[in-house]
Amino acid sequence: MASRLPQETPVRSPALLAVRALAASRKKPGFVRRLPKRGRARHGVTIERDAVARYAALCGFADRMGVPLLYTQLLSFDLAMDWITSDDCPWPALGTVHLANRVVQLAPLAIGDRVDVLLQPGALFSHDKGQALNLDLRIERGGQTVWTATQTLLRIGAPATGEAWPGAVGTLPGLSRQAELDAPADTGRRYAAVSGDYNPIHLSALSARLFGFRRAIAHGMWTQARALSLLLPPGGVTAAEVAVDFKAPLLLPGRASLWSRRSAGGADFEVRDARGEKPHLRGQWRLLP
Amino acid sequence: MTESSIRRVAILGGNRIPFARSNTAYAKASNQQMLTATLQGLVDRFDLHGQRLGEVAAGAVMKHARDFNLVRESVLSTTLARETPAYDLQQACGTGLEAAILVANKIALGQIDAGIGGGVDTTSDAPIGVSEGLRAVLLDLSRAKTPAQRLAVLARLRPGMLMSLNLPRNGEPRTGLSMGEHAEQMAQHWGISREAQDELALKSHANLARAFDEGFFTDLMTPFQGLTRDNNLRPGLTLEQLQKLKPVFDRKVAPGQGTLTAGNSTPLTDGASAVLLASERWAAERNLAPLAYLTHSEVAAVDFFGENKEGLLMAPAYAVPRMLARAGLTLQDFDFYEIHEAFAAQVLCTLQAWQDKTFCKERLGLARPLGKIDPKKLNVTGSSLAAGHPFAATGGRIVATLAKLLAQKGSGRGLISICAAGGQGVVAIVER
C-alpha cells in the first residue's frame, strides 16, 4: 500500500500555507467527475506529550482519558492542507467547509508512539449546497491500522456530482440538556495554535468578517472535542467510533449547550445554542467490540 | 411484659393540607398555623372534639427557637382536650414516619390507646439567625451590668455583623455538600441515567394527577389558604419539558456529567400532615374502621463520610432488609411500595442496590440479592417529586396514603421507605 503513495508530504508553516491557500483560490473548476487518486503520507510522526496535553487542556479532556481519539486527526492536518492547496484538488481552498466527520479508533494511541499518517481522496457526494467530498484518513502503527477517519468537506456553490449526501448522523430524538459549554473569545486562536489550522474565520472578528462571518467561529472539531470530553468514559476508550454532522457555526465568544442521551456503550448528542434550539453539531459515539 | 400483650396498631386515617412550593401559597404561614390546621382537620373528620388523646407527636425540621413547644402549642389551638400531651421530635425527613412509629409503639405496648403522629415544615417562613459576632455582642450586652459596661460592649458592634446572617441551608455539615450533590454522587456511583430519573418524575406527576382526579385525597386533605391541590403538581408535564432542564447539582461532584435537575428532584416545600393511630378496641368503641395496621418499622443509619463511606441517602437500603428479616418477608411480598422520592435518583439507586449481588453480599451481608420489585406497584398515587416534600410532613402523607390504598384493595401489604439527612433511613410495613 505504502509503495503506491507519493513522496513524503512536506510540513509547511502557517504563513506558507496561507500563501498556498490564496494562490489556490484562483482555481476555477468545471464539472468534476472524479478526483485524482494520488494520496498524501507522512511517516514516523511522534505523538508528543506536550502537544497532547495542550490539546487536552483546551478541549477539556482529563489526563486519564489518554490520547483523545480526535487529537489523532490533527496529525493529518498538513496532509489535508497540502492536498487542498495542490492541483489534485480542483476547488479553491477558501470557501470549503467541514460538513461531517467520522472517526474509528481501533486501538488506543499512547504518548511517544511513532505512526504513519495517510490521506486518500475519497467519494464525491452531491449536496443541496454544492459538492461534498471525502478525505479518507488512516493512521498505522507498526504496519497495523489503528485509526481511520473520513473527513467530509463541502465546496459551497460548486456544481455537484455523486450520490446524494446522506449525512453522517440521522435525527436524534429524546436528548436531555446535559451541560453548558463556554467558548471564550480566544478559543479559535488557541485551537489554531495546537492544530496548525490558522483559517482566518476562527482567529478574530476582523479576519472572520473578511470571509463573511459576523464574528470568529469555533473550529467544529474543537466543539466536537469539547462535547466528547464530557461524554466519553472518564477512563478513556479502547475501540470506539464517533460521527458528527456539523450544522450552524458557533460564534465566538459564545455559549452553547450540550444535549445527550447516554447509555453504557455510547451516546447520541447535540451541541446547540445556549437556548437549546439551534444545533451547532449533531453526533453519535459508541464503543466498538 | 409478654409477647401477647403487644397490641395491633390501627391506622384510622390521616389528614394533610395541600403542599405548596416554597414562597408561594403559604409564604406567610407559620409552622404552627399549618400544623394546627392539619390537626384540626383530623379532629373534625373523626369528631375528636374535647377528647383527650394519649399523645400527639410531631416535629419540624426547620424551626424557630420560639417554637420550642411547637406541637403542644398547636394542640392547644385545636378543639382537642387541653389535657392531650404533646411533644416535638426531629429526625430530618424521617420525622413524620418516626413520629407515627413512636405513637404506634406506645399503643402497641398499651401505654396509650390513641394518638396522632405528624410533621410540618416551612422553608418560606424560615428562621434566620444573626451572625456569631453579633450574637456574642448581644449576649454580652445582656450580661453587662453598668451603663459603662454596656457602652463598651456596644462599641464592638460592626455594620458587617448585620450583613452576615445565618440562613438555613439544605446541606450536610460533615461534608459541606448539599443533599442534591450527595444524590448526584449516588447517581454517578450507581450509573443511574438522566432519562430514567426524568421518567420516574413524569410518572410521579401522572400518578398524583390521576389520584387527585379520582378524588383519592378527598378524605385525606383539608384545603388551606385557598389551595385544594399540591401546587407543585404539573398535570400536563411532558418528558420533553423535563429534558430541557439543566443539571443543577453537578458542579462540585461531577462537572458536566450531571443527571439531577429541578424536575427530577423535590423542590423546597411548605406543608403539614398527621395520622390518627389507635388500638383496635379504642377504634371499635368509637365505631371507627381501621384502614390498615402499622406492623413493623426499622431505622438505619450509614457512615457517609468515613473511609468505607456509603451514599448519604442509602440508609433505607440497609433498613429494609433488616426489617424484612424480622418480619419473615421478602422484598416481593408487597402490593404497594411507597419509596419517598427525595430525588428520583434516590429511589433508583435504592432499587438498583437491592438487585446488586456485590452490594447485597458485602454491604448487607445477604446470601442473595433482595431482587426486583414490580414498578407498577411503586408510588401508585404519586410521591414527593410531584407532591413536593415539606421535610417532616412527608411521613404522614405516605402513611395515610398507603393505609387508604390498602383499605381500597381490601387486603394486602405495603412498604414505606424514607431517606433522611445525616445518612439515616426510616422504613415501615403497613398491612391489612
CATH superfamily of the domain at 179-215 and 294-431 in chain B: Thiolase/Chalcone synthase
User: What is the CATH class designation of chain A?
Assistant: Alpha Beta
Oligomer: heterodimer
Strand content of chain B: 15-25%
- Please state the structural category of chain B: alpha/beta
How many helices of chain A in DSSP terms?
7
**Cα gyration radius of chain A (Å):** 18 Å
End-to-end CA span of chain B: 26 Å
Shape label of chain B: globular
- What CATH first level of the domain at 179-215 and 294-431 in chain B would be assigned? Alpha Beta
**Outline type of chain A:** globular
Give the ordered list of helices and strands of chain A.
Answer: HEHHHEEEEEEHHHEEEE
Q: How many discrete structural domains of chain A?
A: 1
Structural commentary:
The complex is a heterodimer of chains A (289) and B (432). Chain A is an alpha+beta fold and 289 residues long. Chain A is built from seven helices and eleven strands. Chain A has a single domain (12-22, 36-287), classed as Hotdog Thioesterase (Thiol Ester Dehydrase, Chain A, Roll), CATH 3.10.129.10. Chain A has helices at 14-24, 49-59, 71-74, 77-84, 187-195, 205-209, 220-231; strands at 40-46, 96-105, 114-127, 130-141, 144-156, 163-164, 176-183, 240-246, 254-263, 266-273, 279-287. In chain A, strands 1, 2, 3, 4, 5, 6, 7, 8, 9, 10 and 11 form an eleven-stranded mixed β-sheet that branches. Chain A is globular, with a radius of gyration of 18 Å. Chain B has a domain at 179-215 and 294-431: Thiolase/Chalcone synthase (Peroxisomal Thiolase, Chain A, domain 1, 3-Layer(aba) Sandwich). Chain B contains 15 helices and ten strands. In chain B, strands 1, 2, 3, 4, 5, 6, 7, 8, 9 and 10 form a ten-stranded mixed β-sheet that branches. The model of chain B has no long low-confidence stretch (mean pLDDT 95). Chains A and B meet through β7 and β9 of A and α8 and α9 of B.
